[in-house]
Structures
1.
Amino acid sequence: MEPLSKYRTIIGVSVAIILIVVAIGVIFWARGFKPNFQTVGIDRTGQIVANSTPQGASVFLNDRLMSATNTTIGFLDPGIYKVKIQKEGYFPWEKEVFVRADLVTEINALLFPQAPEIKPLTSIGAFNPTLSPDNSKIVFGVPAETGGVFMLPLVDSPFAFRQNPRSLANNTQNLDFSKANFIWNPNSDEFVARFENEDGTSSANIILNSRDTNQQPRDITASLNATLASWQRQLEELSQNLGILAPEEVKAATAEAALIQNISQFSSTGLVNYFPDGLIFSPDEKKILYLHQDDTWNVYDLNQRIDFNLPDFTNLESISWYPDSNHLVVAEAGQISIIETDGKNKTTIFSGNYENGFIFAHPAGSRIILLTTLTQQTGTPANLYSINLK
């Protein structure tokens, strides 16, 4: 019995050693280690995880077709790789990425259609459309006796009636809301319709809420300064709270906050500064868009602690965040583009005329909304249109 017991011990130890070696090998293999038979050693490698929206796009690595998204490409030697992701009917995505040993490099490519569908959101004209600070609604004026001030909710709903413009107040003999400018409060539940004389002086300031229909105009000209001052204090308090996250070098490099008013879509009057410290935080509050003191636009990534310098834009009219916090919507003369926050992959999604630089992304990220006449006859009022990106 003694020899048999000895053999059992040897077999048990051997099996345990084999299992340990296999387990170690699996762990090293999963971490990207691969044997190098030329040097008789082990090489450390990295991985690329390539995702795209929509999925099913071809992935090229250094011009070589590797797979289709979503996919993982492993056992890559450390270094710089040229990655291209493309799908029929969409603009390609390209970037040089650095693969590090033992690490996973994740790519999330957002592909935009080459021939997007354009649909009208209004048909009766939209004058001075103004986006609410929470990006959930637009107010605009409509002329004539049947016109007034309308609110367009920005919701993705299967019920069409929830997406139609809703009348908040009608025009009167003395008030034509198509001639008003609109100023939102910080909470996006009230706004002022400001009417001006030809010399720029105020003739009326009507306060309305964004919920009720058939509202009776209430002029708050006597208390306008106090109302706007209260709104400004709220904005400054919010700005100070968010500003704690910004590093001092970004605050120091930011141009005068007054310049930021030029790109605000929450008011067309300049009476309220929605970005008092000049810092425009992304929707997830992890990145900061700001105008550098050298007149260039930058994006500071709070997680990576990297300051990205955006390319020069031609006749910039507006710049705003895309809802995913990884892209920006850029409106230049005659074209609308979407660009990544590191300044790469600038994609033109619309070329043509549009009005007043009124361009922004739908909060669901499914559409870009703009004010234009498209190809209608001269004199036809501009309407709101959506460019479908899905």
2.
Amino acid sequence: MEEDMDVLTRCYVKDTDLVTRNVAGETIIVPIRNKVGDLGSIYTLNEVGSTIWQLIDGKKTGSQIAEEICMTYNVTSEEAKKDTSAFLKSLEEAGLLRLRDED
């Protein structure tokens, strides 16, 4: 759980080498490698994942994003934090986002 809290205290930014599109309530993300879409690594986010993706702005912490998920989807704070933390970690591992550079 300590690792989850660490993720929740950080601010993330999206990788700039991505193309995103919203289709039928889902977000589709295609990484760009060597100026070409990496069609072998297309990511599709459901409604909640799409909301989290939209909230990643380099200013909000994982906790702030989880609070918005809690209010928007009427889930418990604990559930929102757990799911948001896991989702942010998976996006980071996939190379779709990174920690915001410290000022």
3.
Amino acid sequence: MFFSSWTPPTPIEQQLQAATARGDWDGQIGAVAAAELFVAVARVEADGLVPPAPLAPYRDPASGKRCLPVLTRGALPLWQPDWVFQRTTLDVLALEWPHDKWHLAVNPGQPAAAVLPATPLDRAAWLEVYAETPPPAPGRLASLYTGPLHGPLAQGLACGAPLSVRDGVPWNELGTVYRDYDEDRAVLRDAWGVADPAGWWHLTERLLAGAGAGRDAEFALRAREGLAEHAGSADAPPATEEWRQAVTQVLVHRAAPEAEVRAMDAAVTRIAEAEERLRGEAVLRPGRRVASAVAHDLACAVTVARLGLAARLCGPADAERVVLSAGDAARRTYGSWPAFAAGFLLG
């Protein structure tokens, strides 16, 4: 089969396509061992609304073999409301494989496809290769070469990149999965308290408005900006002690509880110390300061948008609206990506 103008979405598909073209079984297994693998499941089954259907192989038209299909992340189809994907790995497949005569079809019908025998000896080899394959290095930015790389949608997705690095997922993906269907729903439920579309919508609106976990830092930073403007020295921030006293006076005037006053005092100290550290790490230029910590909420909004889409709590249009809104807010608030990064770190 001839494929024209094909761009491998990730290095995994690139390695798998090259190994298949060479007839390199070891190369195929090595690529699959390093990959996240996904199995399609009807959403009603994943949600426990109907009993799971028994596994049924299909006849691969290219090889004629009876196969069970899996997909790598870059080969996942466009978002569909009624089909979801659960993540697995080669070692799990080796241990739970149901039939010695069935084959494993990876990315069937796509350029980065492979059909692998799954006899007991083959599966023993899978386990050996998987055990020798190092896990992905943490803390690295992963991209989909076929995902948005320029324009407003890419800029919005880039706001969520710090959390994508933390979670080990590509930063520029807005589609079928974040991690996998079950885990995405669990994260929304357990970490964010969201279990339905209404809760998802309310949370994204709060995050886009900057009402998330970074609100103490945001209050302190806005107070400093107001103090500098009032003094006519917008380019020269007030001293930390003057800033601290101003924040305390505002809170006392509002009859804020003592615990809130102490928390804001601690926030001022934390921000001042963090800015010194960021200057030492060249994230902030000498003499510069962070104007807003809303970047953290915007990053969370993008991540929650991606999770909500993956968990089928919203559709693509709603998720894209949140991502674009986050990008718009970031452009209005920050003059550069380093400024956004500094705001995120203070959030």
